Amino acid sequence: MLYEDPPAACWPIVYSPDYNITFVGLEKLHPFDAGKWGKVINFLKEEKLIADDLIVQAREATDEDLLVVHTRRYLNKLKWSFVVATITEIPPVAFLPNFVVQRKVLKPLRTQTGGTIMAGKLAVDRGWAINVGGGFHHCSSDKGGGFCVYADITLAIKFLFERVQGVSKATIIDLDAHQGNGHERDFMDDHRVYIMDVYNRYIYPGDGFAKRAIKRKVELEWGTEDTEYLQKVHTHVEGALNELKPDIIVYNAGTDILDGDPLGGLAVSPQGIVKRDEVVFKAARRRRIPILMVTSGGYQKRTARIIADSILNLHSLGLIDKELAASGAGNPKFLDVNMVSQRCRVKHPRCVFWREKSPQIFFPEFCNTGLLSSVGPSLCYSRSRRQLEGWSRSQACGLGLASLQKTRSRSAEQIGPWNFSKDEFEP
Ligand SMILES: [Zn+2]
User: Fold this and answer.
1) Does the annotation count 234 as an active-site position?
2) pLDDT tens string 184-227
3) CA distances from 377 to 277, 321, 335 (A)
4) Catalytic-labelled residue, pool 137, 138, 178, 183
5) 282: left (phi over 0), alpha (psi -120 to 50) or beta
6) Which fold, 13-327?
7) Rounded to the nearest whole angstrom, what is the distance from the C-alpha of residue 141 to the centroid of ligand 1?
8) What pTM does this model have?
9) CATH 3.40.800.20 domain position(s) in the chain
């Protein structure tokens, strides 16, 4: 149900008005803006980036969905209001009847969790996806905490592993100010998942056991600022993705690294956060790895504006694009024929790129060689409607699959730009 295909015209941006927690002022007791998700969407609508019917409506995760990761015992515990009060850190919740807690607190969180699971599939299909909520990285299969009631990151990855062919390796890039001990506990001995975590070493949760699951651990000091922060993020994101190329990146993009955040204790500026997201998306897109972003922690009044600004920035740089998304070309397996004909200097008579005016060419083998990486996302992700799909391997043989086989083991840098000799394209 969560994996139903949304209309092709939609952006792979997932949201539902049900995300927002609003009831009798209780939300004001927690130091957060419990309506930040709706505000992000409103800013994006104001900027004319999206409209209501062009985003993917998140659906609530059912018990059956949650049981893919959670234990029945844990889900049963949530029927006690005081347990939910402890996990969400909203003490008065303990005194509410559980049906109210279910409807007003847990349903929004289950809907955000459904959103993350849906966005995982969308990211694989379209190259990228953003769940405007989610990112509950302190929750593991049998334990919640730090406002995180459902393990949406673990769920999204397990759903992909179990239900989507070709997804068997995931990398979590967790850049929330806090350590992501939930997914770390869940994937402790799971070699399919590579975890990179950058966090303030002195704050919650300080989970020493969970730290053992982190492959790339970057512990920050109090008050870390833009220059140092961005340099570390850049170095380690590149390092992590060079070490292992996953089938999906889950990017936990918490904004509680923001200067003045009462919980995060770091001092990154709004521009620094926008830049950080850019660094991560560039690294993912350049390598043609699908990326799922969730917004996680960060609940200051100005947080929603920063998240919206960051999404607008990603769009202006061509790192996310609806037209590509709708046509399927956001998928790294697609390439623009105009770009090929401009850059391919070999006019082989059998090369479909030259012979045919048809724009529809699908050429997955091509991308596996790493050739596209040398061109870079700004070129490959042209906004032209003429996208490539539907062509078989043999139809594309004019480009010389034989030589592609040969180059497969070489890196993009070694291959360089499109400067093959004619001989290399002989099939
Ligand atoms: Zn956090």
Assistant:
1) no
2) 999 999 999 999 999 999 999 999 999 999 999 999 999 999 99
3) 16, 11, 10
4) 138
5) alpha
6) Arginase; Chain A (3.40.800)
7) 19
8) 0.78
9) 13-327
